[in-house]
Amino acid sequence: MPRQGQVRLFASFLLSLAAVAPLFAGDAATDRGDVKPPAAVRQLVPTYKIQAGIDGEIYPVFANYASLQRQSDRTFGVVSITIANPGDATVNRQVSVVIPGWSDEEIQTAELAPGATRTLVFAPAFLPRLYQNREIIAASAHLTITDTASNSVYKTTVPVRLRSAEDIFWGRDFQYAPFIASWVTPHDRLVESTLAHAKQFTLDHRLPGYESWKNATQQEQATYRQAKAIFTALQRSGLSYVKSSFTLGDHKGVSERVRMPSASLSHSSANCIDAAVMYASLFENLGMDSTVVIVPGHAYAGVRVAEGSSKFLMIDVALTGRSTFEAAVSSAEAGMARHAPSAITRVMVEQARSAGIYPMP
Question: Which of the residues 17, 137, 153, 215 has an alpha carbon 20 to 30 A from that of 179?
Fold first, then answer.
């Protein structure tokens, strides 16, 4: 995990979304959209400023999140275009954005009064191949702007780099840690298969999640047994620690590769953050409230012990392949106790879902 200072909690993340757009600013291009007449009769014409990705890099996790938002609700996107109308007449423009071979085309319209400036945020739906990509790839965003008569008044191509679908951008002080919930994939086929295996390690061969008829103590005991069964199943499958967090591209200090649960399960390999999202996926599949907890240099997984309880059962998931369940629980408790609350980031998967952060395709 990248080493950071203090971390922001999930509530501050929600409050900061409205201010996040400047971060997603890449190489900018400012041009005038119409041919300039001679100086004697020159009119002021609109200008266009284009911004793409994070310094020109597009992260699939952010692209997926933005594409699921309504246009009016977006606080950032893949490409943004700022149109300024310095003239004395209203301007109407239709803007289209597409990343050929990678995305659908998105079209938006804008009406600008004299002297007005407006920013259009684009998040075209990407094709499945983006979420299957595991390396950094060069691409380009094509922008076309037309007037009310469908005459082309401006065209440009902006180079972008598509990051691996497994790359996460944590941001300064883990500002974007809640997006790790996109790696929590409860309905993945291998997650389902792991749970089918795990039920063999319970006395009644069941993994019922929370059961309303149980009191708090009974449910906490049942949660402990289910978590232990999952731990045992993963251990018996041969899961072991392999770091594999290296990635390519910019912002190496605040980004890294995180394997999807399907990759970790199919290769029986995971580092701490890989395993944390894998455990969270298994718990969410059972309808249980899961969490991913990040501390400097490490990550843990947790599950709420009972509905409505403030207590979580925490697991040092990096110990899955080399210790006992009891030792993994003790290690998580001791490890978290060594850090001040301000140095701990807790990503509540349920809250992330409510904020529109869903599993990656």
Answer: 137
The β-bridge relationship of strands 137-146 and 91-98 is antiparallel
Q: Which among 282, 287, 285, 286 has a CA at the least distance from the CA of 301?
A: 282
Spatial CA neighbour of 174 closest among 358, 316, 3: 3
Separation CA 18–CA 358 (nearest Å): 19
- Give the list of residues 6+ apart from residue 132 with CB closer than 8 angstroms, or none: 165
- Domain 19-162, CATH homologous superfamily name and number: Immunoglobulins (2.60.40.10)
- What is the residue type of 233? A
With cut-offs at 50, 70 and 90, classify the pLDDT of residue 10.
very low
What is d(CA 147, CA 87) in angstroms, rounded to the nearest whole number? Answer: 15
Report the largest interatomic distance among the alpha carbons of the chain, rounded to a whole angstrom: 89
**327, two tokens:** 């030792």
Give the pLDDT confidence of 169-227 residue by residue, as tens digits: 999 999 999 999 999 999 999 999 999 999 999 999 999 999 999 999 999 999 999 99
Return the residue matching tokens 């969410």.
284
What b/e readout covers 32-69, taking b as 16+ CB neighbours within 10 angstroms?
Answer: ebeeeeeeeeeebbbbbbbbbbbebbbbbbbbbbbbee
| Beta-sheet strands, E only, within 259-354 | 269-270, 290-295, 298-304, 312-315, 345-348
Contact (CB, 8 A) for 302 and 208: no
Residue 142's H or E segment, with its range, is strand 137-146
Name the pTM for this structure: 0.87
